[in-house]
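Quarterly update from the structural biology core.
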Amino acid sequence: MKNFKFIICITMLAITSVACKKSVLDQNAPDQLTTDNFYTSKEKALSGLSAAYSQLEDFVGWDNYVEARSVREFYREDYVVPGPDAANYPWWTEHYNFSFTSGNYAIDLLWRDNYRGINYANQVIEGVENMPDGSIDDVSKKQIIAEAKFLRAYYHFKLLTNFEKIILRDKVPTGGDDLPAPLSERADAYNMILNDMKEAVADLPLRSQRPATELGRITKGAAEAYIGKIDLYRADEDQANAATYLAEAATNLSDVIASGEYSIDPDFMDMFNGTTKNGVESIFELQQTSDASNGAYYRSYLSDWVTAWQLGGYGEIYGTQRLLDEMTKEGKVAAGGLYDPRIYGTIYFEDSYFNDPQNPRVYDQTYNDYFGNGSGVIAFRKWTPATIDRIGRSNAINVPLMRLADVMLLYAEVLNDQGKANEALTYINQLRSKRGNMPALNISSNDDVFNAIMHERVMEFTLESSRFYDLRRWGLLEQNMQEAGRSYTPDKAFYPLPLKEIINNPEAN
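Predicted structure, tokenized:
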């Protein structure tokens, strides 16, 4: 998206600092930007909005995105193991071993970057709401505020899924007295997050209503999809009121499916190697680009971090036998006598598919050529570059954060939780068929459908920041970590409040 890059403009940097209390002796410099005089045009409003987008998924630096996000999102999955180099970075392996403390660097970055995103979003909401008449058209004004509210909700939800209690920030601090704040109850946090998402829906356009230059920006479908996801997460936590949340989730998720705005991408692997960006299945994704105009840098070395060292990458993460067993447990029942095609787009493993010398599929060679016959190495293919010449270089690989497959499986889960197993199965089988001619499942009980949903989520979302949170909300985290031989204890279900916040905010203790 060349005309809407997610950057922090220099002009925004001038207004992000918290203002001190004024006295009668204070003088205002006429050429100094503040939140009061920055928002004077649509162009300025979009500049502020780009800053609000900029903190998505900590995509602001090497430590934040390539390392910290990866160890938080990936190392806590039960189907992975760190590569040998990871032992050199205790702040990484503390996540795999569930031995992290409040001083862990990755936890601090998670808290800091998301609250920075919230602050930027609040600046947009307040600044654009107060823009003078004639400085921006009404449609653009409402849409920009809606996007900022979505982002404020997104950042709060990201925090709420990782910390048991968070601080709610719904305004720009005007002085030091506004900074210390107590932790909020989870119910209050959910209420605020969902309220922001619902307010955003009304003023957001459909994907098809966005011009090509705006592809990748937030849409009505994205807000509806996240309302459904957030409601389902809340229902799993609050069984007493689950029926209400499930009903709202069902409405929003079904609206996304029925909109006709999205379809299942026939090229599963291309969504994760930089080939496809904002494709037909994409509802919301982190934007990256190789366009380096004006010194911009919106690509990363995540692909090297994930790529096995045997292929020339850093090899910081590998799959386990448990993952392979789960992904292959149905056998070779797909079209062409193959396993479920999603496995081939997710991992490299010892199989005739990857060992065909007439059609070498591991960067123009076979599995054995790279890993050795009988090695048993399970290396990730997801997030690795499409061609070997890109290994060792930064790559612009968009990261799908919400896609139609997720909406379909979330909706199936909602229906199953509502006692509608047969309806839920319809969406599971639709996904299996469209993804690669997988045979329809013939099951009927709620338990069987739930087990099918669990399997489908492994096939679809391995290494996509889903597994840990799914297991936790299902109440299966401790069981699966024990099966994986991991040193998990229930007190590690959420991250501790970062040490810096404990020191600087006495009200949060």
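The chain is about 45% helix and 5% strand.
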